[in-house]
Amino acid sequence: MAETQANLPHSKKLSWGKKLGWGVGDVGLNVFFKAIALLLLPFYTEILGLDPILAGAVFLLASLFDGVGDCIVGAIVDRTRSRFGSYRPYLIFASPVLTLCFVAAFIPIQGSQTTLFIYALLSQTALRTAYGLVSIPYSALSSRISDDSNERSQLAGIRLAFAMLGGIIVTYLMPTLVASLQGQFTADSVAPYMISALIAGLVALPFFWICFTATTEPKQLENANPQGFYLGAIIEDMIAMFRIIQNNGALLRVVACMIVSSFAFKMTEKCLVYYVYYYLDSPDLVSKILPIVLFINMVFCPFWAWVAQRTSKRDAWLIANIVSAVGYAAFYFSTSRDPVLATALLGLISIGNSAYLVLIWAMIPDTVEYNEYKTGQRHDGKIFGVTIFSKRLALGLNGLLLGFFMAAIGFESGTQSQSPETIEGLKIIMTVVPLIGIVLSAALIWGYRLDQTFHKEIADKAAANRMQPPAGPPGQR
């Protein structure tokens, strides 16, 4: 066994150049993702004038469509074969399409509520589909470039630190560009938003190219998944998806935690712009507070990776639950409207919440080997497709529920001020809902048992089985 494992490329530790080269790809991804998560909803309600409930419905419907699309993309990339590998080609060829769809999502058209709803739905659906064509292959690479559980924790920490950098770039760059460009065009011009989105999208592209150059896919794994595109492949992949759901209990537990955490904690992110606008009454601080919060996330992502390495991914999650709960409770009970204190409390919340991002993406690659251990095939893309589908579903439900919450507290779109009750309601949405999510995620993660020791055991078994001669043609294995 030791000799066999020593002959595998995964037994070599990754250089820092390769770790950073892969992780930097998430700068590009999060330029787009953070814009969707933080800027699109305010764009719909404040710029387009779309009703909050309709805006929430856009997020739900686009997420449902996107979720199905992510599973399909996962199956497609698993079967892709090229001289660049199965996953890396998408970083080059799909990223320009993503930039074009990003620009199209920020056109401030005018029209009826029906017209605005249709535009928002179609443009966001196209954007999310293009995003999946890049994000799923990128994420699947994490299970290919290393099979060491601790190294994957480190990779997740690096990735998420770069992800926060991408968020900082877009949350500072786009509002700043829009503000500076608005004085150069007429009030009803579409140019400020389209130009800002185009510049942000072009800034993101080189990071995908760096990731493509810095990574390789091990030859020993090129046939670890089914290959070939034919009619029967659809049935094969549907059966494979069923077997993943049936056998991969570790994946299901992580996905459940992702749904709960994404659903709850995104309430804080999506309300943050409104909080700064109306509770702090400081619209000019949007381009400053959001990057500060994301910077704190960036700094602490490697810290949580280190905690996971020293303890376990489950224990790191539970420790983060405590930090988040303290932050949310302090934020809720604070009555101050001092931006400095608000930023400090949001920073404490961000310290805890950054752990969930790191740990999810550290645990998911481990479930790939678990799936190979249980079913005989890895299905990297499908597993990441299911994961991202679950996250999109949670975000969609989050957007819909947030729309109802905002309607319930009396939020009015396009107005310069809100009632005291509405402003206080925003604060409750940002704190109480996430606190409930913390309790649920702690209960779910408690039973997670795929620690470093167990993962190494099953990874070794999977590697040994992989060295055996194939039972038939690769497409039928």
Binned strand content: under 5%
Number of helices: 17
CA gyration radius, whole angstroms: 22 Å
Low-confidence segments: 1-10, 470-477
- The name of the CATH topology is Growth Hormone, Chain: A
CATH structural class? Mainly Alpha
The helix/strand class is mainly alpha
Domain module tally: 1
CATH arch. level architecture: Up-down Bundle
Can you tell me the overall shape? Answer: globular
Roughly what percent helix?
over 70%
Average residue pLDDT = 83
Largest sheet, described in full?
A: none
Tell me the series of helices and strands, N- to C-terminal: HHHHHHHHHHHHHHHHH
User: Span between N and C termini?
Assistant: 23 Å
**CATH-wise, what's the superfamily?**
MFS general substrate transporter like domains
Number of strands: 0
Brief overview, please?
With 477 residues, the protein is mostly helical.
Write the topology of this structure.
Elements: H1 2-6, H2 16-23, H3 25-48, H4 52-79, H5 89-93, H6 95-104, H7 113-145, H8 149-182, H9 191-214, H10 231-247, H11 249-279, H12 286-310, H13 313-333, H14 339-375, H15 380-408, H16 420-445, H17 452-466
Explain this structure.
The protein is mainly alpha-helical and 477 residues long. The chain has one domain: Growth Hormone, Chain: A (Up-down Bundle), CATH 1.20.1250.20. 78% of the residues lie in helices and 0% in strands. It has helices at 2-6, 16-23, 25-48, 52-79, 89-93, 95-104, 113-145, 149-182, 191-214, 231-247, 249-279, 286-310, 313-333, 339-375, 380-408, 420-445, 452-466. The radius of gyration is 22 Å and the shape is globular. The two termini are 23 Å apart. Residues 1-10 and 470-477 have low confidence and may be disordered.
